[in-house]
Amino acid sequence: MKRVRKPVFFIVLLLILALTYAAIAGVYVQRGDFKDTVIKGIGDIRWGIDIKGGVEATFTPAEGVQATPEQLEAAKSIIEVRMTSSNITDYDLFSDSVNNRIIVRFPWKSDEAEFDAETAIEELAATALLTFREGDQYLTADTSADGSDNVILEGSDVISAQAQVQQEETTGAYEYMVGLEFNESGKEKFAEATTRLVNQTISIWMDDIMISSATVQSAITDGRGVITGDFTPQEATDLANKIQAGALPFALTVTDFSTISPLLGASALDAMALAGIIAFAAISLFVIILFRLPGFISVIALAGQMGLTFAAISGFFPNFNSFTMTLPGIAGIILSVGMGVDANIITASRIKEELRNGKSLDGAIQRGCENSFWAIFDGNITVLIVSIMLLLVFGPSNILSMIFGESTTGAIYSFGFTLLVGTIGNFIMGVFAARLMLRSVSGFKFLRKKWLYGGAGK
Question: Which end of the chain is more exposed for a tag (fewer CB within 10 A), N or C?
Fold first, then answer.
Protein backbone atom coordinates (compact mmCIF):
# COMPACT_ATOMS: atom_id res chain seq x y z
CA MET A 1 0.00 0.00 0.00
CA LYS A 2 1.25 3.46 -0.88
CA ARG A 3 1.19 5.42 2.36
CA VAL A 4 -0.18 8.94 2.63
CA ARG A 5 1.89 11.55 4.45
CA LYS A 6 1.08 12.00 8.13
CA PRO A 7 0.07 15.70 7.99
CA VAL A 8 -2.68 14.85 5.47
CA PHE A 9 -4.92 13.57 8.26
CA PHE A 10 -4.80 16.89 10.12
CA ILE A 11 -5.30 18.92 6.93
CA VAL A 12 -8.38 16.92 5.93
CA LEU A 13 -9.68 16.98 9.52
CA LEU A 14 -9.39 20.77 9.77
CA LEU A 15 -11.07 21.25 6.38
CA ILE A 16 -13.98 19.00 7.37
CA LEU A 17 -14.42 20.68 10.75
CA ALA A 18 -14.28 24.16 9.20
CA LEU A 19 -16.80 23.24 6.50
CA THR A 20 -19.18 21.58 8.95
CA TYR A 21 -19.07 24.46 11.42
CA ALA A 22 -19.54 27.13 8.73
CA ALA A 23 -22.36 25.18 7.04
CA ILE A 24 -24.24 24.81 10.33
CA ALA A 25 -23.52 28.10 12.10
CA GLY A 26 -22.94 30.36 9.08
CA VAL A 27 -20.62 33.33 9.04
CA TYR A 28 -21.99 36.82 9.68
CA VAL A 29 -20.50 40.32 10.04
CA GLN A 30 -22.17 42.90 12.26
CA ARG A 31 -22.11 46.49 10.95
CA GLY A 32 -23.83 48.63 13.55
CA ASP A 33 -27.51 47.65 13.51
CA PHE A 34 -27.10 45.59 10.34
CA LYS A 35 -25.90 42.00 10.03
CA ASP A 36 -24.33 40.97 6.72
CA THR A 37 -24.32 37.33 5.70
CA VAL A 38 -20.90 36.16 4.52
CA ILE A 39 -21.68 32.43 4.48
CA LYS A 40 -25.20 31.07 4.87
CA GLY A 41 -25.93 28.55 7.60
CA ILE A 42 -28.84 26.43 8.77
CA GLY A 43 -30.58 29.56 10.04
CA ASP A 44 -30.89 30.78 6.43
CA ILE A 45 -32.78 27.72 5.20
CA ARG A 46 -36.33 28.41 4.02
CA TRP A 47 -38.53 25.80 5.68
CA GLY A 48 -41.49 24.33 3.81
CA ILE A 49 -45.17 24.86 4.44
CA ASP A 50 -45.40 21.51 6.22
CA ILE A 51 -42.78 22.59 8.79
CA LYS A 52 -43.19 26.35 9.25
CA GLY A 53 -46.49 27.15 7.58
CA GLY A 54 -47.02 29.78 4.93
CA VAL A 55 -49.47 31.77 2.85
CA GLU A 56 -52.39 30.95 0.58
CA ALA A 57 -53.53 33.65 -1.83
CA THR A 58 -56.09 33.98 -4.62
CA PHE A 59 -55.39 36.24 -7.61
CA THR A 60 -57.98 37.47 -10.10
CA PRO A 61 -57.74 39.86 -13.07
CA ALA A 62 -58.30 43.45 -12.02
CA GLU A 63 -61.20 45.66 -13.10
CA GLY A 64 -63.64 42.79 -13.64
CA VAL A 65 -61.80 41.35 -16.66
CA GLN A 66 -62.84 37.82 -17.67
CA ALA A 67 -59.50 36.33 -18.66
CA THR A 68 -59.18 33.54 -21.18
CA PRO A 69 -57.61 30.23 -20.08
CA GLU A 70 -54.51 31.17 -22.08
CA GLN A 71 -54.22 34.51 -20.30
CA LEU A 72 -54.57 32.86 -16.89
CA GLU A 73 -51.84 30.37 -17.81
CA ALA A 74 -49.63 33.28 -18.85
CA ALA A 75 -50.27 35.07 -15.54
CA LYS A 76 -49.55 31.83 -13.70
CA SER A 77 -46.18 31.64 -15.48
CA ILE A 78 -45.01 34.98 -14.13
CA ILE A 79 -45.91 33.96 -10.57
CA GLU A 80 -43.93 30.75 -11.07
CA VAL A 81 -40.93 32.72 -12.37
CA ARG A 82 -40.99 34.88 -9.26
CA MET A 83 -41.28 31.80 -7.03
CA THR A 84 -38.32 29.97 -8.53
CA SER A 85 -36.20 33.13 -8.68
CA SER A 86 -36.67 33.39 -4.90
CA ASN A 87 -35.52 29.74 -4.55
CA ILE A 88 -38.96 28.63 -3.38
CA THR A 89 -39.48 25.05 -4.52
CA ASP A 90 -42.19 24.05 -2.05
CA TYR A 91 -45.22 25.76 -3.54
CA ASP A 92 -48.59 24.88 -5.06
CA LEU A 93 -49.84 26.91 -8.01
CA PHE A 94 -53.12 26.39 -9.86
CA SER A 95 -55.08 28.29 -12.51
CA ASP A 96 -58.89 28.02 -12.39
CA SER A 97 -60.36 29.31 -15.66
CA VAL A 98 -63.93 28.45 -14.59
CA ASN A 99 -63.79 30.82 -11.62
CA ASN A 100 -61.36 33.27 -13.26
CA ARG A 101 -58.63 32.98 -10.63
CA ILE A 102 -55.16 31.71 -9.72
CA ILE A 103 -54.44 30.06 -6.36
CA VAL A 104 -50.95 29.90 -4.85
CA ARG A 105 -49.53 28.49 -1.61
CA PHE A 106 -45.94 29.09 -0.49
CA PRO A 107 -43.89 29.01 2.75
CA TRP A 108 -42.68 31.90 4.89
CA LYS A 109 -39.19 33.31 4.48
CA SER A 110 -36.47 31.90 6.75
CA ASP A 111 -36.17 35.18 8.67
CA GLU A 112 -39.92 35.92 8.79
CA ALA A 113 -40.94 37.09 12.26
CA GLU A 114 -44.32 38.83 11.98
CA PHE A 115 -45.93 36.35 9.53
CA ASP A 116 -47.82 39.04 7.65
CA ALA A 117 -49.60 37.29 4.76
CA GLU A 118 -50.43 40.56 2.96
CA THR A 119 -46.81 41.69 2.89
CA ALA A 120 -45.62 38.24 1.77
CA ILE A 121 -47.70 38.34 -1.44
CA GLU A 122 -46.97 41.92 -2.52
CA GLU A 123 -44.14 40.97 -4.88
CA LEU A 124 -46.19 38.20 -6.49
CA ALA A 125 -49.11 40.53 -7.15
CA ALA A 126 -47.00 43.21 -8.83
CA THR A 127 -47.45 43.66 -12.58
CA ALA A 128 -44.69 41.92 -14.55
CA LEU A 129 -42.20 44.05 -16.48
CA LEU A 130 -41.27 42.34 -19.74
CA THR A 131 -38.44 43.86 -21.78
CA PHE A 132 -36.46 42.99 -24.91
CA ARG A 133 -32.86 44.21 -24.57
CA GLU A 134 -29.62 44.36 -26.49
CA GLY A 135 -27.10 41.76 -25.30
CA ASP A 136 -27.64 39.59 -22.24
CA GLN A 137 -25.63 41.18 -19.39
CA TYR A 138 -27.76 43.39 -17.12
CA LEU A 139 -27.53 44.38 -13.46
CA THR A 140 -31.07 45.71 -12.95
CA ALA A 141 -34.35 45.83 -14.83
CA ASP A 142 -33.17 48.62 -17.13
CA THR A 143 -29.40 49.02 -16.68
CA SER A 144 -26.76 46.98 -18.49
CA ALA A 145 -23.40 45.94 -17.07
CA ASP A 146 -21.79 49.13 -18.42
CA GLY A 147 -24.54 51.32 -16.92
CA SER A 148 -26.37 52.06 -20.17
CA ASP A 149 -30.07 51.61 -20.95
CA ASN A 150 -30.47 49.27 -23.92
CA VAL A 151 -34.15 48.32 -23.74
CA ILE A 152 -35.54 47.71 -27.25
CA LEU A 153 -39.24 47.28 -26.45
CA GLU A 154 -41.57 46.27 -23.60
CA GLY A 155 -44.40 43.84 -23.02
CA SER A 156 -46.99 46.41 -24.09
CA ASP A 157 -45.51 46.20 -27.61
CA VAL A 158 -46.30 42.47 -27.88
CA ILE A 159 -49.71 41.39 -29.18
CA SER A 160 -49.23 37.65 -28.74
CA ALA A 161 -46.68 34.91 -28.13
CA GLN A 162 -47.52 31.31 -29.05
CA ALA A 163 -45.73 27.98 -29.14
CA GLN A 164 -45.42 26.68 -32.72
CA VAL A 165 -44.14 23.56 -34.44
CA GLN A 166 -42.91 22.82 -37.94
CA GLN A 167 -41.61 19.68 -39.62
CA GLU A 168 -38.31 19.77 -41.48
CA GLU A 169 -38.70 18.59 -45.07
CA THR A 170 -35.38 16.75 -45.26
CA THR A 171 -35.32 14.86 -41.95
CA GLY A 172 -38.99 14.86 -41.01
CA ALA A 173 -38.07 15.95 -37.48
CA TYR A 174 -40.32 18.36 -35.60
CA GLU A 175 -38.92 21.70 -34.48
CA TYR A 176 -40.61 23.65 -31.69
CA MET A 177 -40.40 27.44 -31.52
CA VAL A 178 -42.11 30.53 -30.16
CA GLY A 179 -43.89 32.88 -32.56
CA LEU A 180 -44.16 36.59 -31.69
CA GLU A 181 -46.50 39.25 -33.05
CA PHE A 182 -45.94 42.97 -32.33
CA ASN A 183 -48.23 45.99 -32.55
CA GLU A 184 -47.34 48.93 -34.78
CA SER A 185 -45.11 50.54 -32.18
CA GLY A 186 -43.37 47.24 -31.47
CA LYS A 187 -43.06 46.49 -35.18
CA GLU A 188 -41.07 49.67 -35.79
CA LYS A 189 -38.85 49.21 -32.72
CA PHE A 190 -38.13 45.57 -33.50
CA ALA A 191 -37.42 46.28 -37.18
CA GLU A 192 -34.88 48.96 -36.25
CA ALA A 193 -33.22 46.74 -33.62
CA THR A 194 -32.99 43.57 -35.72
CA THR A 195 -31.64 45.52 -38.72
CA ARG A 196 -28.91 46.99 -36.54
CA LEU A 197 -28.16 43.84 -34.50
CA VAL A 198 -27.81 41.11 -37.15
CA ASN A 199 -25.61 38.28 -35.74
CA GLN A 200 -25.84 39.87 -32.29
CA THR A 201 -27.88 38.93 -29.21
CA ILE A 202 -31.30 40.12 -28.11
CA SER A 203 -32.46 38.89 -24.69
CA ILE A 204 -35.91 38.77 -23.10
CA TRP A 205 -36.28 39.67 -19.42
CA MET A 206 -39.09 39.28 -16.89
CA ASP A 207 -38.42 41.82 -14.15
CA ASP A 208 -34.71 41.20 -13.38
CA ILE A 209 -34.72 37.62 -14.69
CA MET A 210 -33.55 36.70 -18.19
CA ILE A 211 -35.97 34.13 -19.59
CA SER A 212 -34.49 33.78 -23.09
CA SER A 213 -31.79 35.05 -25.44
CA ALA A 214 -31.31 34.55 -29.16
CA THR A 215 -29.02 35.59 -31.97
CA VAL A 216 -30.61 37.79 -34.67
CA GLN A 217 -30.37 35.90 -37.97
CA SER A 218 -31.81 38.64 -40.20
CA ALA A 219 -33.80 41.88 -40.07
CA ILE A 220 -37.47 41.39 -39.09
CA THR A 221 -39.63 44.17 -40.49
CA ASP A 222 -43.13 42.66 -40.75
CA GLY A 223 -43.94 42.67 -37.03
CA ARG A 224 -43.73 38.89 -36.72
CA GLY A 225 -40.73 37.02 -35.29
CA VAL A 226 -39.80 33.50 -34.31
CA ILE A 227 -37.54 32.32 -31.49
CA THR A 228 -35.91 29.03 -32.40
CA GLY A 229 -33.70 26.66 -30.43
CA ASP A 230 -33.61 23.12 -29.10
CA PHE A 231 -37.01 23.54 -27.45
CA THR A 232 -39.15 20.70 -26.19
CA PRO A 233 -42.92 21.24 -26.57
CA GLN A 234 -43.18 22.18 -22.89
CA GLU A 235 -40.22 24.57 -23.02
CA ALA A 236 -41.69 26.38 -26.01
CA THR A 237 -45.07 26.63 -24.27
CA ASP A 238 -43.52 27.88 -21.03
CA LEU A 239 -41.52 30.59 -22.81
CA ALA A 240 -44.57 31.70 -24.78
CA ASN A 241 -46.61 31.92 -21.57
CA LYS A 242 -43.95 34.01 -19.85
CA ILE A 243 -43.76 36.45 -22.76
CA GLN A 244 -47.53 36.58 -22.97
CA ALA A 245 -47.68 37.32 -19.23
CA GLY A 246 -45.67 40.47 -19.77
CA ALA A 247 -48.13 41.53 -22.45
CA LEU A 248 -51.30 40.94 -20.43
CA PRO A 249 -53.85 43.76 -20.75
CA PHE A 250 -54.71 43.48 -17.06
CA ALA A 251 -53.03 43.39 -13.65
CA LEU A 252 -53.61 40.75 -10.99
CA THR A 253 -55.55 41.63 -7.84
CA VAL A 254 -55.34 39.71 -4.59
CA THR A 255 -58.94 38.89 -3.65
CA ASP A 256 -58.23 36.59 -0.72
CA PHE A 257 -55.29 35.53 1.39
CA SER A 258 -54.78 33.57 4.57
CA THR A 259 -52.12 32.00 6.76
CA ILE A 260 -51.49 28.25 6.51
CA SER A 261 -50.70 26.49 9.78
CA PRO A 262 -47.72 24.11 9.73
CA LEU A 263 -48.13 20.38 10.24
CA LEU A 264 -45.26 20.36 12.74
CA GLY A 265 -44.33 23.81 13.96
CA ALA A 266 -41.12 25.24 15.41
CA SER A 267 -41.24 23.17 18.61
CA ALA A 268 -41.48 19.93 16.64
CA LEU A 269 -38.56 21.07 14.46
CA ASP A 270 -36.46 21.71 17.57
CA ALA A 271 -37.38 18.24 18.84
CA MET A 272 -36.31 16.72 15.52
CA ALA A 273 -32.98 18.57 15.71
CA LEU A 274 -32.38 17.27 19.24
CA ALA A 275 -33.31 13.75 18.15
CA GLY A 276 -30.86 14.04 15.26
CA ILE A 277 -28.03 15.08 17.58
CA ILE A 278 -28.77 12.19 19.95
CA ALA A 279 -28.96 9.73 17.05
CA PHE A 280 -25.66 10.98 15.63
CA ALA A 281 -23.99 10.61 19.03
CA ALA A 282 -25.37 7.08 19.44
CA ILE A 283 -24.22 6.03 15.96
CA SER A 284 -20.79 7.54 16.59
CA LEU A 285 -20.42 5.65 19.85
CA PHE A 286 -21.52 2.41 18.17
CA VAL A 287 -19.05 2.54 15.26
CA ILE A 288 -16.16 3.64 17.50
CA ILE A 289 -16.74 0.76 19.92
CA LEU A 290 -17.20 -1.77 17.14
CA PHE A 291 -14.50 -0.63 14.69
CA ARG A 292 -12.19 1.52 16.88
CA LEU A 293 -9.90 3.79 14.83
CA PRO A 294 -11.69 3.29 11.45
CA GLY A 295 -14.93 3.96 13.34
CA PHE A 296 -13.54 7.23 14.72
CA ILE A 297 -12.51 8.32 11.23
CA SER A 298 -15.92 7.35 9.85
CA VAL A 299 -17.55 9.70 12.40
CA ILE A 300 -15.40 12.56 11.08
CA ALA A 301 -16.37 11.64 7.49
CA LEU A 302 -20.04 11.45 8.45
CA ALA A 303 -19.86 14.93 9.98
CA GLY A 304 -18.31 16.18 6.74
CA GLN A 305 -21.09 14.55 4.72
CA MET A 306 -23.74 16.30 6.80
CA GLY A 307 -21.84 19.58 6.48
CA LEU A 308 -21.83 19.27 2.69
CA THR A 309 -25.55 18.48 2.69
CA PHE A 310 -26.44 21.49 4.85
CA ALA A 311 -24.18 23.69 2.71
CA ALA A 312 -25.99 22.66 -0.48
CA ILE A 313 -29.39 23.29 1.12
CA SER A 314 -28.68 26.73 2.62
CA GLY A 315 -26.99 28.29 -0.41
CA PHE A 316 -23.49 28.08 1.13
CA PHE A 317 -21.91 27.66 -2.32
CA PRO A 318 -22.18 30.83 -4.47
CA ASN A 319 -23.10 28.96 -7.67
CA PHE A 320 -25.84 26.88 -6.05
CA ASN A 321 -29.05 28.50 -4.88
CA SER A 322 -30.72 27.53 -1.63
CA PHE A 323 -34.03 25.74 -1.74
CA THR A 324 -37.04 25.06 0.46
CA MET A 325 -36.61 22.31 3.04
CA THR A 326 -39.66 20.11 3.61
CA LEU A 327 -40.37 17.01 5.69
CA PRO A 328 -39.53 14.70 2.75
CA GLY A 329 -36.28 16.68 2.41
CA ILE A 330 -35.39 15.82 6.00
CA ALA A 331 -36.21 12.18 5.20
CA GLY A 332 -33.73 12.39 2.29
CA ILE A 333 -31.01 13.61 4.68
CA ILE A 334 -31.71 10.77 7.12
CA LEU A 335 -31.59 8.19 4.33
CA SER A 336 -28.33 9.55 2.91
CA VAL A 337 -26.76 9.59 6.41
CA GLY A 338 -27.75 5.95 6.80
CA MET A 339 -26.05 5.17 3.50
CA GLY A 340 -22.95 7.06 4.69
CA VAL A 341 -22.81 4.96 7.87
CA ASP A 342 -23.27 1.81 5.80
CA ALA A 343 -20.41 2.75 3.45
CA ASN A 344 -17.99 3.28 6.33
CA ILE A 345 -19.09 0.07 8.08
CA ILE A 346 -18.52 -1.94 4.89
CA THR A 347 -14.96 -0.62 4.55
CA ALA A 348 -14.15 -1.09 8.25
CA SER A 349 -15.58 -4.63 8.21
CA ARG A 350 -13.49 -5.60 5.18
CA ILE A 351 -10.33 -4.29 6.88
CA LYS A 352 -11.23 -6.22 10.02
CA GLU A 353 -11.72 -9.42 8.01
CA GLU A 354 -8.40 -9.02 6.21
CA LEU A 355 -6.56 -8.54 9.53
CA ARG A 356 -8.13 -11.69 10.99
CA ASN A 357 -7.08 -13.58 7.85
CA GLY A 358 -3.47 -12.79 8.67
CA LYS A 359 -2.81 -9.78 6.42
CA SER A 360 -0.37 -7.08 7.47
CA LEU A 361 -1.86 -3.76 8.55
CA ASP A 362 -0.97 -1.99 5.29
CA GLY A 363 -2.18 -4.95 3.25
CA ALA A 364 -5.44 -5.17 5.18
CA ILE A 365 -6.17 -1.47 4.67
CA GLN A 366 -5.41 -1.68 0.97
CA ARG A 367 -7.43 -4.87 0.36
CA GLY A 368 -10.26 -3.72 2.60
CA CYS A 369 -10.63 -0.44 0.68
CA GLU A 370 -10.41 -2.17 -2.70
CA ASN A 371 -12.89 -4.94 -1.86
CA SER A 372 -15.46 -2.57 -0.38
CA PHE A 373 -15.43 0.05 -3.13
CA TRP A 374 -17.68 -1.66 -5.67
CA ALA A 375 -20.17 -2.75 -3.04
CA ILE A 376 -20.48 0.88 -1.95
CA PHE A 377 -20.54 2.14 -5.55
CA ASP A 378 -23.31 -0.25 -6.65
CA GLY A 379 -25.54 0.74 -3.75
CA ASN A 380 -25.00 4.47 -4.17
CA ILE A 381 -25.24 4.71 -7.96
CA THR A 382 -28.78 3.30 -7.88
CA VAL A 383 -29.82 5.94 -5.35
CA LEU A 384 -28.15 8.64 -7.46
CA ILE A 385 -30.18 7.64 -10.52
CA VAL A 386 -33.43 7.61 -8.55
CA SER A 387 -32.76 11.01 -6.96
CA ILE A 388 -31.90 12.57 -10.34
CA MET A 389 -35.15 11.21 -11.81
CA LEU A 390 -37.10 12.76 -8.93
CA LEU A 391 -35.44 16.14 -9.59
CA LEU A 392 -36.18 15.97 -13.32
CA VAL A 393 -39.82 14.96 -12.88
CA PHE A 394 -40.81 17.06 -9.87
CA GLY A 395 -38.46 20.06 -10.06
CA PRO A 396 -39.67 23.58 -10.86
CA SER A 397 -38.35 23.40 -14.44
CA ASN A 398 -39.92 19.92 -14.84
CA ILE A 399 -37.76 18.69 -17.72
CA LEU A 400 -39.80 15.49 -18.21
CA SER A 401 -43.19 17.24 -18.06
CA MET A 402 -44.07 16.22 -21.62
CA ILE A 403 -44.13 12.62 -20.35
CA PHE A 404 -45.41 12.97 -16.79
CA GLY A 405 -47.36 16.23 -17.04
CA GLU A 406 -46.79 19.55 -15.26
CA SER A 407 -45.93 19.38 -11.58
CA THR A 408 -45.06 21.80 -8.81
CA THR A 409 -44.61 19.14 -6.15
CA GLY A 410 -41.71 20.76 -4.38
CA ALA A 411 -41.91 18.33 -1.45
CA ILE A 412 -40.81 15.42 -3.65
CA TYR A 413 -38.18 17.62 -5.30
CA SER A 414 -36.87 18.39 -1.81
CA PHE A 415 -36.52 14.67 -1.07
CA GLY A 416 -34.67 14.04 -4.34
CA PHE A 417 -32.36 17.01 -3.79
CA THR A 418 -31.26 16.12 -0.27
CA LEU A 419 -30.88 12.47 -1.24
CA LEU A 420 -28.71 13.45 -4.22
CA VAL A 421 -26.38 15.83 -2.37
CA GLY A 422 -26.18 13.45 0.60
CA THR A 423 -25.14 10.57 -1.65
CA ILE A 424 -22.56 12.72 -3.43
CA GLY A 425 -21.31 13.79 -0.01
CA ASN A 426 -21.01 10.11 0.91
CA PHE A 427 -18.69 9.53 -2.05
CA ILE A 428 -16.58 12.58 -1.22
CA MET A 429 -16.35 12.06 2.53
CA GLY A 430 -17.09 8.39 3.20
CA VAL A 431 -15.10 6.99 0.29
CA PHE A 432 -12.39 9.52 -0.56
CA ALA A 433 -11.69 11.60 2.58
CA ALA A 434 -12.13 8.75 5.08
CA ARG A 435 -9.71 6.48 3.23
CA LEU A 436 -7.23 9.30 2.82
CA MET A 437 -7.29 9.94 6.58
CA LEU A 438 -7.08 6.22 7.37
CA ARG A 439 -3.99 5.73 5.23
CA SER A 440 -2.46 8.84 6.79
CA VAL A 441 -2.95 7.85 10.45
CA SER A 442 -1.65 4.35 9.77
CA GLY A 443 1.74 5.98 9.26
CA PHE A 444 2.01 6.98 12.93
CA LYS A 445 3.99 4.34 14.80
CA PHE A 446 1.86 4.44 17.94
CA LEU A 447 -1.27 3.87 15.80
CA ARG A 448 0.07 0.84 13.94
CA LYS A 449 -1.47 -1.66 16.35
CA LYS A 450 -3.80 -4.13 14.66
CA TRP A 451 -6.35 -4.10 17.47
CA LEU A 452 -6.98 -0.41 16.76
CA TYR A 453 -8.28 -1.46 13.34
CA GLY A 454 -10.38 -4.40 14.58
CA GLY A 455 -7.67 -7.04 14.56
CA ALA A 456 -7.16 -9.58 17.31
CA GLY A 457 -3.53 -8.74 18.07
CA LYS A 458 -1.95 -5.74 19.76
Answer: C
Residues 6 or more apart from 432 whose CB is under 8 A from it? none
Angle of helix 410-425 relative to helix 327-356, nearest 10 degrees?
A: 20
pTM flag (> 0.70) = no
- Rounded to 5°, angle at Cα 200 from 196 and 201: 115
| CATH level 3 topology of 54-128 | Ribosomal Protein S8; Chain: A, domain 1 (3.30.1370)
Pairwise CA distance, residues 425 & 256, whole Å: 43
Task: Please check whether the two domains, 7-43+263-453 and 54-128, share a CATH topology.
Answer: no
Q: What are phi and psi of 210, to 5 degrees?
A: -75, 120
Candidates 297, 238, 353; CA nearest to 10 is: 297
Q: Give the span between the Cα atoms of 57 and 120, in whole angstroms.
A: 10
Closest listed residue to residue 265, CA positions, set 1, 54, 9: 54
Give the amino acid at 295.
G
User: How many angstroms separate the CA atoms of 431 and 441, rounded?
Assistant: 16
CA distance 455 to 458: 8
* Mean pLDDT score across all residues of the chain: 81
Packing angle, helices 327-356 and 293-314, rounded to 10: 160
Per-residue pLDDT band for 403 (boundaries 50, 70, 90) equals: low
CA gap 386, 199 in Å, rounded: 42
Residue 75: Cβ within 10 Å count:
24
* CATH topology classification for 7-43+263-453: Multidrug efflux transporter AcrB transmembrane fold (1.20.1640)
What number is the average pLDDT over the span 286-308? 92
Q: 422 φ, ψ to 5°?
A: -65, -40
Three-state secondary-structure class, residue 148: coil
Domain boundaries, the chain: 7-43+263-453, 54-128, 130-247
Q: Are 355 and 451 in contact (CB under 8 A)?
A: no
